[in-house]
Design goal:
heterodimer, A: 290 residues, mainly alpha, elongated, disordered N terminus, B: Rossmann fold, 21 helices, globular, transport (chain A), peptide transport (chain A), BP-dependent_transpt_permease (chain A), plasmid (chain A)
């Protein structure tokens, strides 16, 4: 029982069968793979820049030179979606990675050392938690001028606090476990204990919430682009929706397809996150799932 | 005992779900429980004793099904009754008390209301009558000020008091069968004695049938009329307490009885070397619990003027009940806890005065074996890694350390190939051996063993104790052995220190402390040892208690 509570020590087949038991997660993973492939082969599928005007403006879907229609300037929507997948995934993944680095580092330090350090780090975290995420992200991007780097950093800066809290909780509870005491008594340094003893055991919940955070990051990026705060050199889903909103009644497809792309990708990520949760945290897995 | 038995279990077989380590939880079980009788069901963990009790109570988990056999209550087959009647029977005629009084009570309800709830479902009494009955019940289980206690929440009560409330709740509807599933295992020995006396007393007064599940032969000797010994889902021996305890027939029963730790007298006197390895001088530690900006926290004195010495090759036993501060002293010595004042001298150097880096070299001389073999090994590291991490931290070459780890695994009675495997592949006893190997990897002079066998079954317990005993002779180790079980302390320790509420009340050679206890508290503790009136039959105890594994590796 106790051993199982720390998440299964063996990965491999056990992990996959647990993951595959969640049907939604498998569908999500399949769709996500599709999006990743689309992003990877965007240049092959649509060699021309998505900003190029390749068709007549206002072409409805299924027209000859634009499968999903064209926008107000005659740019191919399908090409935009394929290339936009790159931006969405890139920003989603990198900003989450940065958020995980900041959050886990602060959480680990805070949970491991406790006392004053913990107080200090947690008050700092609360400072960020009291400011509304999106507003802060808008302000940051506006100040640093919209670019890929500033957007990634802005999203990371607004999304690390929950991870820091999670990591802190994990570290606090693992710190009082006997195997950590044993590591202390056998003379291992604090760095070794944090890095080799505690971190591997606290990874599962962090991985799960990071996977969900990728989805939030994609939404944040879309919202920023929608407001015109996206990187002006990159075609992104949020920008497409934003640009098409003025003509939504004449040309629904311009905002509909990128919107659907956002919806499905975020949904897929959430499903995968849920599957990871079931597979990595067997104790928390909801009962009654077939 | 000629009337129909209260409980008559015939050929009961319970299936386990596929993929379990055996097809049946219990197989072909047949036994009876007569009115006015205490039947002890004994066995090690996984023997199916709790499953049997749960089957009677209808508490089996969903995946586990009774596949054949019947359970008759005063002649009626329980399984043939409709669901409703089964429930009425189980709440009304058969009651159960559980092992963990901490979790068996609803923490958000006053204890009186919890008993009242039982009365409301099973009787037609009105409010006032129920209230009077609650008070009466609480008084009958020996709780002080029942009218006041009725309004307390469970967290205000001690473990023993909660178990009394549980018993009061079980008695509320005047059951004729009481099933007790290890009701005293989580309690201190003195509390255990009181609860056992209470159960015996109530049972005799009401002529109840009690099915008492336990793993402790001492408890069996204390209360049982009849005994059923279970092994891997089968009853291997059943008979009167007198017969089973003194003339055990089945080899498994004999093996279990032989493993029971007992007060032995023939331990040789320990001759002390000149210089002590470790001296604790006037160590004090107070924990401040809770509290906030406005409320002062609670103070718990875990160490008050603690002094003791450990010489080379000596095993000092630190005994006492939970909360007496024995672990605090152990943890202070290995540097996991910083005492408020006092000195801990290791070979003359005060460890408490040292800075972190200056203390580090001493760590390898003092090592610890922990209580819970499931929590003390990192589940994500291989056994080889776990053992070598210490030496590697002290700058030893990894390959060399691994070779040494393999030799150590053999020394503790495991195969060298264990180094490549993960902790979850091992049983509790094997894990504790790994834990010991880890401690020995640093070649310590002093080993702190904090309840190293209390989480293990008796037979495994005996093996691990033998191992520790053997190692300390072979390696000339000094050991501080922390335990709540005086029988174990008597078996393994040269010197005994008895702790109560953060103080050492008595310290001396084991023979004297046990043979001629000076302090009243020591006498209370000795008196509370279950089964002290029972001497283990001579022919059961093997000549040497060394385990086979050890002999092979020697």
């Amino acid at each position: 029982m106790t051993a199982a509570a720390i998440t299964p020590a063996r990965k491999g087949s056990g992990f996959w069968s647990a993951f595959a038991r969640n049907k939604g997660a498998v569908i999500g993973l399949a769709f996500l793979t599709l999006v990743i492939l689309m992003a990877a082969f965007a240049d092959v599928l649509y060699p021309a820049s998505p900003w190029d005007m390749t068709a007549m403006p206002f072409q409805p879907p299924l027209s000859e030179d634009a499968l999903l229609g064209s926008d107000t300037l005659g740019r191919d929507i399908a090409a935009g979606i394929a290339h936009g997948a790159r931006v969405s995934l890139l920003i989603g993944l990198t900003s989450t990675a940065v958020a995980v680095l900041i959050g886990v580092f602060l959480g680990a330090v805070s949970g491991f050392y406790g006392g004053r350090v913990d107080d200090l780090v947690m008050r700092f975290t609360e400072l960020f938690q009291t400011i509304p995420n999106f507003v802060l992200a808008v302000v940051l991007v506006a100040i640093f001028t919209p670019s890929l780097t500033s957007i990634v950093l802005a999203i990371a800066i607004v999304s690390w606090p929950p991870l820091a809290r999670l990591a802190r909780g994990e570290f606090m509870s693992l710190r009082s476990r006997e195997f950590v005491h044993a590591a202390v008594t056998t003379g291992q340094s604090n760095m070794t204990i944090i890095w080799r003893q505690i971190l591997p055991n606290s990874l599962s919940p962090i991985i799960v919430s990071a996977s969900l955070m990728v989805a939030t990051a994609i939404l944040l990026e879309s919202s920023l682009s929608f407001l015109g705060l996206g990187d002006p050199n990159l075609m992104s889903w949020g920008y497409m929706v934003g640009a098409a909103r003025t003509v939504i009644r004449q040309a629904w497809w311009m905002s509909f397809f990128p919107g659907i792309a956002i919806l499905l990708t975020v949904l897929a990520l959430n499903l995968v996150g849920e599957g990871l949760n079931d597979a990595l945290n067997p104790k928390l897995a909801r009962k009654g799932r077939s | 005992m000629t009337e129909t038995p209260l409980l008559d279990v015939r050929n009961l077989t319970i299936d386990l779900p596929r993929g379990a380590d055996r097809p049946h939880a219990v197989q072909d079980l047949t036994f009876t429980l007569e009115p006015g009788e205490i039947l002890c069901v004994v066995g090690e963990s996984g023997s199916g004793k709790s499953m049997t009790a749960h089957a009677v109570m209808g508490l089996l988990p969903k995946a586990v099904k009774v596949s054949s056999g019947e359970i008759r209550h005063q002649g009626t087959d329980v399984f043939s009754l409709p669901e409703r009647d089964q429930r009425a029977l189980r709440g009304g005629r058969i009651a159960m008390i559980f092992q963990e009084p901490m979790t068996a009570l609803n923490p958000l309800m006053r204890v009186g209301d919890q008993i009242d709830e039982v009365l409301r479902y099973h009787t037609t009494l009105d409010r006032a009558a129920r209230r009077a009955r609650v008070v009466e019940l609480l008084a009958s289980v020996g709780l002080p000020e029942p009218d006041h206690l009725r309004r307390s929440y469970p967290f205000r009560l001690s473990g023993g008091q909660r178990q009394r409330v549980m018993i009061a709740m079980a008695l509320a509807v005047e059951p004729d069968i009481l099933i007790a599933d290890e009701p005293t295992t989580a309690l201190d020995v003195t509390t255990q004695k009181q609860i056992l006396e209470l159960i015996q007393d109530i049972q005799a007064k009401r002529r109840m049938g009690v099915m008492f599940i336990t793993h402790d032969f001492g408890v069996v000797a204390e209360i049982a009329h009849r005994v059923a010994v279970m092994q891997r889902g089968r009853i291997v021996e059943i008979g009167t307490a007198e017969d089973v305890l003194n003339r055990p027939q089945h080899p498994y029963t004999r093996q279990l009885i032989a493993a029971v730790p007992h007060l032995i007298e023939h331990r040789e006197d320990f001759t002390r070397a000149r210089q002590p390895v470790l001296t604790a001088e006037k160590v004090c530690k107070t924990f401040h619990l809770g509290g906030g900006f406005f409320t002062p926290g609670r103070k718990v004195v875990a160490g008050d003027d603690l002094s003791l010495t450990i010489h080379q090759g000596e095993t000092v036993g630190l005994v006492g009940e939970s909360g007496s501060g024995k672990s605090t002293l152990g943890r202070s010595i290995v540097g996991l806890i910083k005492p408020d004042s006092g000195k801990i001298l290791f070979e003359g150097v005060d460890l408490l005065s040292l800075s972190r880096p200056a203390f580090r070299p001493y760590r390898r001389h003092v090592q610890m074996v922990f209580q819970d073999p499931y929590a003390s090994l990192n589940p994500r590291h291989t056994v080889g890694d776990i053992i070598t991490q210490g030496p590697v931290a002290f700058g030893e070459d990894r390959h060399k350390a691994l070779d040494k780890a393999k030799a150590l695994l053999k020394l503790v009675g495991l195969d060298a190939s264990a180094a490549e495997r993960f902790p979850h592949e091992f049983s509790g006893g094997q894990r504790q051996r790994i834990s010991i190997a880890r401690a020995l990897a640093l070649e310590p002079k002093l080993l702190i063993a904090d309840e190293p066998v209390s989480a293990l079954d008796v037979s495994v317990q005996a093996q691990v104790l033998d191992l520790l005993e053997d190692l300390r002779h072979r390696l000339n180790l000094s050991m501080l052995f922390i335990t709540h079980d005086l029988r174990i302390a008597a078996q393994i320790c040269d010197t005994i220190a008895v702790m109560q509420k953060g103080r050492i009340v008595e310290i001396g050679p084991a023979k004297e402390v046990f043979g001629n206890p000076q302090h009243a508290y020591t006498r209370t503790l000795l008196d509370a040892i279950p089964g002290k009136g029972w001497t283990i039959p001579e022919d059961v105890v093997p000549v040497t208690r060394r385990s086979a594994a050890l002999r092979n590796s020697a």
